[in-house]
Amino acid sequence: MSNPSRSDSISESQEARSDEVEYSSSDAESDTEFEVQPLTSKDRKLALWKEKKRQNRREHAYKRQKEQRVQEALSVIGEGSSKHVAVIKLQRRPELAREMEGKRFDHTDPIFDDFKRIGGKGSGTVVVLDEDTDEDMTQEDLDTFNYVFTYFRKDQRLHLPVKNNHAMIKGQMTAIGWRVCMETGQAVGTYAPSPAGKKHIEAWLEHRKGAIEVHRIYANSFCNLAPNMYRSQVQQRAKLGVPALGVDYENNNLPFLFCSNLAYTHNDFENLGHLDNDVSTFTHGMGGNVDKATGRLASFEDGFRMEGAFFYVADYGLLIEYDKIDGVVEQVWQGSKHVYGTVGGKVKEGFTRYGSSAQINQRLTAKVAKYQVDGEGIIVDDQEYAARYGKRS
Hints:
With 393 residues, this protein is of the alpha+beta class. The protein has two domains: 6-77; 94-388, Double-stranded beta-helix. It is built from ten helices and 14 strands. It has helices at 6-36, 41-77, 94-100, 139-158, 195-199, 201-208, 211-225, 227-240, 362-374, 382-388; strands at 116-118, 128-133, 168-180, 186-190, 261-271, 283-291, 306-307, 310-313, 318-320, 327-333, 340-343, 346-347, 351-359, 378-380. An eight-stranded mixed β-sheet has the order 2-10-6-13-5-3-4-14, with helices on both faces. Strands 1-9-8-11 form a four-stranded mixed β-sheet, with no helix packed on it. The longest helix is centred in the N-terminal third of the chain and has 37 residues, at 41-77. The radius of gyration is 26 Å and the shape is globular. This is Tet-like 2OG-Fe(II) oxygenase domain-containing protein. Residues 1-39 are annotated as: Disordered. InterPro entries: 2OG-FeII_Oxy_6.
């Protein structure tokens, strides 16, 4: 959908207003004529047709003005390009969500036959979804996505993978940001370095500085997709006092901070239909096809191939066909409210697909609230890890 210009909106609005004036004048004249000569059936049909046409013009003008206001808002709030995409309205299906929660499905399972499918080159909004195909990307878009995915590639060597995710079936998940500490005497902390991270703690410390840029990129994507949802989550995190991805525990004043942690997945990741244990109303994520050797985006032209992989939201019978998308998917969904899952596919050797989600964790929020009251336990952050392994940044 092309973006309406301001002049188009104004001219449409003026046309609508002139129609209203014309209608009032015509209506007054018809009242006078009615006293002299009653309207025929044909006259009444013509009058109704004209009124319907005027109403359609008014509604069209209003719609164009609304689109213009959205574009203006996005140009102020977000730093990236905003796009109009198709809106798909689906009825909620709670019985389907109950049937799929906690279960594993193959991509050929007939339960998916009547799902609304999103894939191919067209973009769409689902809960909120934006698809950036390889052909659509600017060089700036490409550089931004490559920053994120190459960061993940390096990070997976320096952070320990997540072992206790309740829904994961296969593949690998790694997390960055803040978590609940399980050890006695500790409150909350950042995710621990891997053995390689401990061995090369200076490189680990330098790498972790890039997490704030990842947070900024995700915030910009979320804001461009759904500014109101994004703003509500920024406010929610600030109100809860939860530490934010990429910054120190007490440094929560940057205006774009919306999540406490971010999890990314790869290596044919698959999980059960499930609900997230998060307090955040919305979950934001990005996913893309990458070259394993470099971590950079790989297009179909580069040889990337994947079969049978998709993301689904059971509550709405929605399915996003990752294997048909030649590029990056940016999406927002309600992971703590709607049953969803990822069906793993077979990826061509030498490639992988990164998926990710950014949110405010429920257990972390509860532990922070307790710490704010009793002050028990220590904060195990990146500096604490550095001190343990002999270095300080």
